[in-house]
Amino acid sequence: MEDIRQLSGKHTYGTWRRQKGFLPLHVVSAEGSHFTDASGKRYLDLSSQLMCSNLGHGNRAVIDAIKQQAEELAFIAPGYTTTARAELTKALLEVLPKGLNKFFFTTSGTEANEAAVKIARMVTGKHKIISRYASYHGATAASIALTGDFRRWPAEPFSTVNGTAFAPDVNCYRCPLKKTYPECGVACADYVEYMIEREGNVAAVIIEPIVGTNGILVPPKEYLPRLRALTKRHGVLLIADEVMTAWGRTGDWFACDHDEVVPDILTTAKGITGAYVPLGLTATTDEIASYFDEHYFAHGHTYEAHPLTLGPAVAAIAEYRRLGLLERSKKMGAIVGEKLNALKSRHSSIGDVRGRGLFWAVDLVRDRSAKTPFNTQREKLDGKPLIIDQVTAKMLSLGVACMGWVSHLVIAPPLIITEAEIDQGIAALDEALKIADSAL
Questions:
Q1: Omega prior to 182 cis, within 30 of 0
Q2: Quick check: helix, strand or coil at residue 413?
Q3: Which one of 20, 235, 348, 402 has the fewest beta carbons within 10 angstroms of its own beta carbon?
Q4: pTM of the full structure
Q5: What is the pLDDT of residue 180?
C-alpha cells in the first residue's frame, strides 16, 4: 500500500496544489455512497468525489453498459456514427431544455466549454466573452481564461486567450455591489447589460446557473430570467455551464430548468455518465446549428463521440429515471439543508448555509457580522495553512470525505444517499467544526 502511495506521489502530479507532500490515499473499491482504502477503511463520499458521482459507486447498469459497448465497438472515428451515438441523442432530446437540439460530444467539461466559446465566436463574428469572478470553467487555454477564480492567475498571460471580461458575482451573502445584507436584488444582472453596451464585440455571456466550486451561489429567482432577457435584447449568446449543476444535482435535470430559462448553448459533463467514463456535451439551439449548414464547423478531436463514453451515458440517464433521483435530490436536499442550518445554530464559525437539491455550501467565517472568511484565495495559492483543510482532514479521520475550498465546504453527496448516511456525514461535520470554532 505504501509503495503505491509513494510511487504515485513521487512520479505523478497532484492537481491544483504544491507537489511537496503529495501522498494520495490509496483507494481500492467503492460501492453506493462509500469508498474503501487499501487498509479496509470505508469513507462516506459526502461530495461525490468532485461533485460528479451522482449515481453513487458500483451502479451495475452503467458498468454493464461499459462492458457491452467495449465488446460491441470500443472505438470508431467521429466521422462515422454508432448505435450509441443515436441512442444518446434520442435520450438527450428528451431531457435537455427544449430547443437545444444539436450536440457536440467531448471527453470533459473543459473541452465542452472550449467548444462552446469557439462556436459562439464563429456564429456571432464577435470575440469577447463575459464571465464572472466567482467561476470555474476549466483548465485549458480558453476555459481557464473564462475562469474568474485564482486558478487563472498562474496561467497569465502565456496560457490564456484574450477577450474575457468579468462581471460581478451573484452572491447575496457577500454582494459585490452592496456591502449590507440582505441582498441587493439583481443589480448584478443589470450590470452585465452595462458591460455589453460598453465593451462592444461581445459574443456571449457564460455562467454557472448555480456557481459550483466557488461557493454554491444560488441566484435570486429573478436573476437568470433577467440575464436571459438582456442577452437576447443585445443579440448576445447565453452559455450555461452545467458541468456540475446538471443531472439531478439541484433537483432538476438541469439547473436552468428551475427558472425555465433556455440558454443558446449548454455545456455539461460529470454526472452525464455518473463519472463512470469521461464524457462532456456541448448542446446548441437549431438557430446556432443552422449557421453551420453553409459555414465551416472549425472544431473537432479524435475522441469526439467516442462510443465507449456514449453507451454508458444512455444507461446513466435511464438509471436517473428508474431510481427517481431528481425527486430524491429534492427530498434529501431538504433534509440536508435542515440539518446544516441546525449546525449553524451550534457553531459560531458557520457564517452561511445555502444550496438547492443535493448541492450545498457551508461557509466558514472568523466573524459572522463582518462575514470575514477564515482564508483567502491568495493564501490558498501561496500554500498557506487553511482552517478548511484542518476541518476536512478531521472529517476524513472520522470516515467522511468532504471537499473544502478556501473557506467553505461543498456538501454534494451521491443522489442515492440515505438519511442514515446523511446523519453520519453531519455528525462528522459537527465534530470537525469544533476546530473552526476554536480558531475564532
A1: yes
A2: coil
A3: 20
A4: 0.96
A5: 47
